[in-house]
Every structure is written in C-alpha cells, then in structure tokens.
Design goal:
The complex is a heterodimer of chains A (about 200) and B (about 300).
Chain A: H1 4-30, H2 38-63, H3 76-98, H4 103-112, H5 114-131, H6 135-141, H7 143-150, H8 153-167, H9 173-200
Helix pairs in contact in A: 1-2, 1-3, 2-3, 2-8, 2-9, 3-5, 4-5, 5-8, 6-7, 8-9
Chain B: H1 11-24, H2 28-39, H3 46-49, H4 61-66, H5 79-83, E1 93-98, E2 104-107, H6 108-113, E3 118-125, E4 130-140, H7 141-148, E5 156-161, E6 181-185, H8 186-190, E7 195-200, E8 203-204, E9 214-216, E10 229-235, H9 242-246, E11 270-273, E12 280-281, H10 289-292
Parallel strand pairs in B: 1-10, 4-11
Antiparallel strand pairs in B: 1-2, 3-4, 4-7, 5-6, 5-10, 7-8, 7-9, 11-12
Helix pairs in contact in B: 1-2
Classes of the chains: A mainly alpha (about 200), B alpha+beta (about 300).
Chain lengths: ~200, ~300
C-alpha cells in the first residue's frame, strides 16, 4: 500500500526528472549539439515528450483504480502541467524558431495543413485545463463543473496522437502504439461507466 | 579545424578508391580532385565553390552524410548513417531492359569506363521543406541512355533500387513497398542537368547517400533522386513510383519543386537550408527554371504536381 505521503515525497524527484530533458535540449540547442537540423529536432523532441506526458496523465487515472495505488492520483496535476509546459515549448519553437513569427504564414499553415490543425486545437483545449488546475479554481468552479472541463483531456490526447500520426510519412508504428494506448485507456473508462450505474441503483 | 572520426579514410578504403579511380574514372580532372580530397575532402573547396550560385554555400560533408532520407536503412534521418555499414556496393551491375534494342546487364566498372565523370554542385530540395547544397561527382544520365539504345517507342524511364534486406535493415519492415521505384519522362531523363552520381566531395558515394550509383534530378524533390540503382527500364507508359503509389494525394509523378503548389503536410513556399537559421524562399524548379521550364510549358503543374 502506497500512501499519499509516499507519492507526495516522490514529487521533487519526479519534478526534476521531467524538467531535465527540456533543460538538456535547450543546452544542446544553444551549443549546437542537436544535430544537423536542430530546430526540427528540438520541435520533435518537445512534441513527443508532451504527448507522452499527456498519455501518462490518463494512465495515472487508470492506475488509481487499483486499490494499493489509489493515491497515485496526487501526481496527476504536476504531470498534466508539465505536459502543458512541453506543449508550450513545442508550439513556441514552431512559431518563433521555425517560422520567425511570420503570422500570416503560420495562420495559413494552421488552417491548411490538417496535422497542424490537430496539434493547434489540442493546444487550445489544454489552456482551460492548465488554467483551472489550482485548488482555488476547483473550489470556485465546483468539483462537478471542474471535472467536466477536464474531460477535455480526451480530445486533447486523441488530437495530439493524430497530429503525430499524420506527420509521420511511412512507418507509423510509433504513433499507432500511442493511439492504441489512448484507445485502451478510454475503453477502460467506458467499461467502468457502463458497470457503475448498476451499483448506484 | 576539427576532423571528425567519420572524415578519416581508412587506408584500405583509400587503396580501393585509388584502384577504382585508376580503373574507371579516367577523367584527369576528377583524378586531381579526388587525390587532393582523400586526406581531407574539404581542404580545397575552390574546386566546388567556383560552381556555386552567389546565394549558396556548400553544405559540409558531415551534414550531407548524417542527415538522410533513405528508408532502406531506417526512417529516421540518422538511420542511414548509422545502419548502412554492412552494405556492400561492390561488385555492382545495372540491368537494362524494357523497350531497348537489346536487354543487357552492365558492370558498373564498364559503364564508368565509357562516361565522363564531372563535378556538379546542385541544390537538393527535400519535399519535407529542407535543402542542402551538394558537390556531386557523376555523369549525365543521357550518356547511359545512349549506351542502352532505347527504341523510339520508349517514352519513360523507370529506376529500381537494390533489394537486400540482410544488408539494408529498413527493408525488413514493410514501411513502403520494396524495392523503391522511381521514374522520369524521357525528355527529363535526357536533360543535361540529370545525372547519375557516383561520388560526393571527391569521395566514392557513401552508402547512406546511395552507393554506388544514384540519380540526381536537381529541379525535383529529393525523393525522385533514387539511390543504389540496380535496374533501368524503358517504357511507353508512365511508370509507377514508390511515393505516388503509397500516397497519391500527396506525391505526384512529376514532383517538380514548386513553391506555388502546396503539399498537404508541408508548405512548399519556404525551406530551411541545412546550417541556416532562418528559412528562405523556395525557388521555382529549385532555381533551375531556365534549364527545365520548357519541359513543362504544356503541362498544368497544379494538376500534375
């Protein structure tokens, strides 16, 4: 049995572990150690990290169904906020480094290219999640409404994995694995939903 | 200047290269280029830079040989460099068949003894919106076509890459339908810009760049420039090409570099020149408009992309 205290104690370590890649990539970028096409590499790494963290938040909810891991849910907010952090870095790399704030071009790109559209909507949906993440916001909104808003994580995850899927030119194994995990996690939730009302009655 | 491990030529390879050049590359000019290039291939860049456009700068040997799309060795840019060590580009033959006077198989050495190897510095523009400037050594495809003696009914040329899954780990997975195939219209193939390249920076073609012989069509997106060619077929109908077969809504047969016709995944209006920070405008026909625009004067380039 892992207590809330156990998980809370692991937070500082987890914080550093998840933050570290971004610092490393920034350092490698500045020193010219991110390969031949550093902007592309930086964008890819940040995006992939964001997607993995989004999936991790979904996994945490599922894991918290296991009795002995119930308290793991205390880690979810931090990981979710880190997902938002990496998405923001990913998006600003695209805006600033890749396209040099050429807004006209970027808007066209978002509208015309489905994979960028998916990624952009996914980013937009994450904003209300991140901005309602404080205890104070939960109180102000009421848990029910807060929970409803946070269902947005499902379209976020699906769109983010589609963003990756469409980007890959030929070997789609990796994005398909991520999509598969997301689908399994969602199916588990639907299954739980369908079995719960009977208990309630 | 920092010399990377990958830039040092092992002695055995050096000897083989000497032999290869003596035996097949009779061109006196290339002999001087290569011998000076062995120790450090980019020590005397003036050989190549004199062919450069004023806005262009050569990409480094490291950039050209560590960032490649060659799915036969894996789908990541670094895979061809990392996974191509077991590939054996010698001995090599090219089969010529289809609409020719006499189908036959040429030894690469025999082809090379009949052609003139020259330096060609070309821009290479990938459909993924990045580009490089590469100093190739090679000969005009038209020279080989003359040797092949196609019939007058031949209107297209098809090229096929080698299929060796045991040496090309990427081919063990069905990412695309192997072997890779590409094609050109006969007049495109005969255009003086179109070359078969056998080297870069005065080195024999590195495995990851399409050893021992590859096509270079500088006004088309990079995927048209098929690598490690083992078969050339002359046809009277437009041949199937790998990327067009895989995703016809994204890739066309012509695949001319065209900033005005967008790809569903990459805007083709701009590109990142490898080594540069800011994007640059993509040029019509990759800047070779003068040499090739006449080939397409009757073609709707938005339809035949």
């Amino acid at each position: 049995m892992f207590s809330t205290r156990n998980f809370n104690r692991s937070k500082p370590v987890l914080f550093i572990l998840i933050l570290f890649p971004s610092l490393l990539w920034a350092q490698q970028f500045v020193t010219g150690n991110l390969g031949v096409n550093p902007i592309e590499k930086l964008m890819d790494e940040l995006g992939l990290m964001a997607l993995r963290l989004i999936i991790l938040t979904l996994m945490i909810t599922t894991l918290s169904n296991i009795k002995s891991l119930k308290s793991i849910v205390v880690l979810r907010r931090m990981i979710g906020l880190f997902a938002f952090y990496y998405v923001c870095l990913h998006f600003s790399t695209y805006i600033v480094l890749d396209h040099f704030l050429d807004m006209q071009f970027i808007i066209q790109d978002i509208i015309k290219r489905p994979f960028i559209t998916f990624g952009f909507i996914s980013f937009l949906f994450l904003i209300p999640l991140a901005s309602t993440s404080t205890n104070n916001m939960i109180k102000r909104l009421g848990f029910k409404l807060w929970k409803k808003i946070h269902y947005l994580i499902y379209p976020v995850a699906i769109l983010a994995s589609m963003h990756f899927y469409v980007l890959v030119r030929a070997d789609k194994t990796e994005p398909v694995i991520y999509m598969g995990i997301i689908i399994l996690l969602l199916l588990h939730r639907i299954f739980k939903r369908l079995t719960r009302p009977q208990l309630a009655q | 200047m920092k010399i990377l491990g990958s830039e040092i030529t092992p002695y055995k390879t050096y000897l083989n290269r000497r032999k290869f050049i003596k035996g097949s590359l009779a061109s006196a000019m290339l002999a001087t280029v290569t011998s000076s290039a062995f120790a450090n291939h980019d020590s005397d860049l003036s050989i190549y830079t004199k062919n450069l456009n004023e806005n262009d700068k050569l990409n480094s040997y490291e950039e050209i040989t560590t960032y490649n799309n060659f799915y036969e060795f894996g789908t990541h840019k670094k895979h061809p460099h990392l996974n191509s060590g077991n590939f054996k580009p010698r001995p090599w033959t090219i089969k010529i068949d289809g609409l020719v006077k006499k189908p036959q198989t040429f030894d690469l050495e025999k082809i090379l003894s009949n052609v003139t190897i020259e330096d060609r510095v070309y821009r290479l523009r990938c459909v993924e919106a990045w580009s490089m400037v590469i100093p190739w050594q090679g000969f005009q495809l038209s020279e080989l076509i003359k040797m092949a003696e196609p019939l007058s009914s031949a209107k297209y040329v098809q090229f096929v890459t080698v299929f060796r899954p045991e040496e090309m780990p990427g081919q063990q997975k069905r990412t695309i339908i192997w072997p890779y195939r590409e094609g050109l219209r006969m007049d495109e193939a005969m255009n003086p810009l179109t070359i078969l390249a056998t080297g870069l920076y005065g080195h024999e073609m590195p495995n990851q760049n399409g050893a021992p012989i590859r096509l270079v069509v500088p006004w088309k997106y990079g995927f048209k420039s098929i690598k490690s060619i083992v078969e050339i077929r002359f046809l009277d109908t437009q041949p199937e090409t790998s990327w067009e077969t895989l995703a016809p809504w994204e890739y066309g047969f012509y695949a001319n570099v065209n900033p005005n016709v967008n790809h569903p995944r990459w805007s083709q209006g701009t590109e990142r020149r490898i080594g540069e920070f800011k994007r640059r405008e993509t040029l019509m026909f990759n800047g070779y408009e003068e040499e090739v625009a006449h080939l397409y004067k009757d073609l709707d380039l938005t339809k035949f992309y």
